[in-house]
Amino acid sequence: MVDFALSEEQEQIRDWVRTFVEREIKPLENEVLRRERTGEGAGLTADEQSRLRDLARKSGFWGVQTPVEYGGMGLDAVSAAVIEAELGRSFVPFYFGGSADNILFYANADQRERYLLPTIEGERISCFAISEPGAGSDAKAIRTRAHRDGNDWVINGEKTFITRGNEADFCMVFAVTDPELGANGGVTCFLVDRDMGWRSEYIHTMGEWGPASLVFEDVRVPEENVLGEIGQGFALAMQWINSGRYLLPARALGACERLLELGLEHARTRETFGAPLADRQAIQWMLADSQVEIEALRLLVLRAAWQVASGKDARHGQSIAKLYGGIKANEIVDRMLQIHGGMGYTRELPLERWYRELRLLRIYEGTDEIQRRTIARDLIKGHVTVGRV
Ligand SMILES: Cc1cc2nc3c(=O)[nH]c(=O)nc-3n(C[C@H](O)[C@H](O)[C@H](O)COP(=O)(O)OP(=O)(O)OC[C@H]3O[C@@H](n4cnc5c(N)ncnc54)[C@H](O)[C@@H]3O)c2cc1C
């Protein structure tokens, strides 16, 4: 028997987050749109974020996947996907507090106090820096170099498109420590405070994300700031990317649900030629196709999350979910914008904003082409069998 039901606990979590989004986040949407229209920023202020985070914390929503011993909820991947989908129902960029990048949990005792715990508490902000101007999809081609000098490492190089790179006060930077070995044992991850000397520059994008380029010029980092082991950085980077990929299409799933609701509402109420849009087959097909794709996406996301939660090799399933989610979210937002006509194109409604935001899903954390490459390679090499993923 196949059981498609969420557990009772997961249903309660979903309902609580949905209510939180309805009561606390959606009321901020018009203000967030207004700010973007007037150039006052594209999201919430730091005060608004922390007020919402503190409010959620009072109800126990803190550190969704952070282990219980660190004060988190320690939830499994399926529950995390359910939460992410609910948060995705608003375009307001909100995440619960209490989390840290998964690889930061490899911190040793000293790093734990200086980096991991303050990050979980929200006192410090991290960023993850592997991409470079010459190395995006081909992450193995990174050139940022770290060489030893006494008890220190000296880092030189440039990183690009680093999320939170402008706000972070430390970064997990990946640098080549042994050029001969390269990604096969010659890349190391360093925890580098901003005041050790790296600088960042804002990159303007079509969405709310303002990633940064980071410049390292003779940045001196003590040996004790190596995260994990020397030479094991590339494996850490892949772990960072591979263990949470399902969360991206999960967020898109929530967005698609809300977009379909907006499209439905408009189709029911907008009349042209003496009848509601909802009476037109051209519009009905857009609604129907969107619902079919949303339900397919839900199953792909939940299955990938279940594979992660049950310790199975989830890379293939996550690639499928991410690829499908990125493509379908972009098609669905386009259809719903179309149903809204001219209003869909304005900055009065969230459709135009979502249209720009969702485009990113086809690029970061592995582009569509790179997901296809993974899927095809797994098939061709026989790592997966057709019909048995
Ligand atoms: C907003 C934003 C936030 C980001 N955040 C981070 C972050 O926090 N940390 C970080 O390290 N990086 C981050 N990135 C970088 C992101 O992961 C890369 O942009 C992405 O991996 C693609 O790399 P690229 O831009 O260099 O494109 P390229 O690798 O140059 O690819 C260009 C195009 O060619 C295609 N292509 C490449 N290789 C192949 C191939 N073998 N076969 C077929 N097609 C191919 C790609 O799919 C793409 O369409 C972020 C990017 C953005 C836009």
Number of domains: 3
Query: Ions, cofactors, ligands: which are bound?
Result: flavin-adenine dinucleotide
Rg (CA only): 22 Å
Q: Summarize the main sheet.
A: 4 strands, mixed
Number of continuous helical runs: 12
Instruction: Kindly report the name of the CATH homologous superfamily of the largest domain.
Output: Butyryl-CoA Dehydrogenase, subunit A, domain 3
CATH class annotation of the largest domain: Mainly Alpha
Query: Kindly, what is the distance between the CA atoms of the first and last residues, rounded to a whole number of angstroms?
Result: 18 Å
Description:
- This is Medium-chain specific acyl-CoA dehydrogenase, mitochondrial.
- Keywords: FAD, Flavoprotein, Oxidoreductase.
- Its cofactor is FAD.
- Residues 7-123 form the Acyl-CoA dehydrogenase/oxidase N-terminal domain.
- It comes from Lipingzhangella rawalii.
- By secondary structure, the protein is α+β, with helices and mostly antiparallel strands.
- It has 3 domains: 8-99, Butyryl-Coa Dehydrogenase, subunit A, domain 1, CATH 1.10.540; 124-231, Butyryl-CoA Dehydrogenase, subunit A, domain 2 (Beta Barrel), CATH 2.40.110.10; 244-380, Butyryl-CoA Dehydrogenase, subunit A, domain 3, CATH 1.20.140.10.
- Helices cover 46% and strands 14% of the residues.
- It contains 12 helices and 10 strands.
- The strands form 3 sheets. Strands 1-4-5-8 form a 4-stranded mixed β-sheet. A 4-stranded antiparallel β-sheet has the order 2-3-7-6, with no helix packed on it.
- Helix 7 (247-269) packs antiparallel against helix 8 (281-309).
- The longest helix is centred in the C-terminal third of the chain and has 29 residues, at 281-309.
- The protein starts with 7 loop residues before the first helix and ends in a 9-residue tail after the last helix.
- The mean pLDDT is 96.
- The structure holds flavin-adenine dinucleotide.
- The site of flavin-adenine dinucleotide (FAD) has 21 residues, from strand 1, strand 3 and helix 12.
